[in-house]
Amino acid sequence: MTTPGMVRLRQLRRAKDLMDRDWSQPLDVDAVAAHAGYSPYHFVRAFKSAYGESPGQYLSRRRIERAEELLRTAGLSVTEICHLVGFHSLGSFSCTFKRRTGLTPGEYRKRHLHRGAALIPGCFALLWNGGFPARAPAGAPAAQERNSGEAHGPAPAYGEDRSVTDSDARGGRTP
Questions:
Q1: C-alpha angle 93/15/64, rounded to 5°?
Q2: What's CA 157's distance to the chain center, in Å?
Q3: Using CA atoms, how far apart are residues 152 and 17, in angstroms rounded to an integer?
Q4: Which of 32, 67, 140, 148 is least buried, going by the fewest C-beta atoms within 10 A?
Q5: Are 131 and 142 in contact, with CB atoms under 8 Å apart?
């Protein structure tokens, strides 16, 4: 027997799985909500009610967790890690990282550097995380992007930014 609550949680789980799978890609609230079958505003309320944090806070937390791992294990600069985990601004990445961990990314790396194995060379980490664009052989069509395309919705109007932002991560709403 399927109850309405189970259906609701299944829909929200689909959105959460999408964010877990494509955390390094630009994700907007409209597309993630549509993937779950919700309107954007109802989705944000339902997600926060079910998981205790907004979709933006969840995505930001997942990105910072991944950044922590890369800072401990990869020989990449903080800027390269910032972009690999889906942040577009080094400043917002550093502020969000410090708010969540209590340390700047550089301080975190210094404190945790000796706790793991040797650092993975940056070129391997970039390759593993999709940091290098795929090259097509001469005359062949360009390679398809990593994203499956499931989360793509209509493009925002000029000047409109509908991405899950740090303001959403702090509890604000995206218009």
A1: 20
A2: 22
A3: 15
A4: 140
A5: no
Side chain identity, residue 100:
R
Task: Using DSSP, state whether 86 is helix, strand or coil.
Answer: coil
Find, among 9, 99, 91, 17, the residue nearest to 59 by Cα. 17
In this predicted model, what pLDDT tens digit does every residue of 11-62 receive, in sequence order?
899 888 888 888 778 788 888 998 888 999 999 999 999 999 999 899 999 9
Rounded CA-CA distance 158/142 in Å is 27
What gap in Å lies between CA 16 and CA 106, rounded to an integer? 30
Tokens 């964010």 locate to 19
What residue has token string 């889906």?
A: 86
pTM here is: 0.63
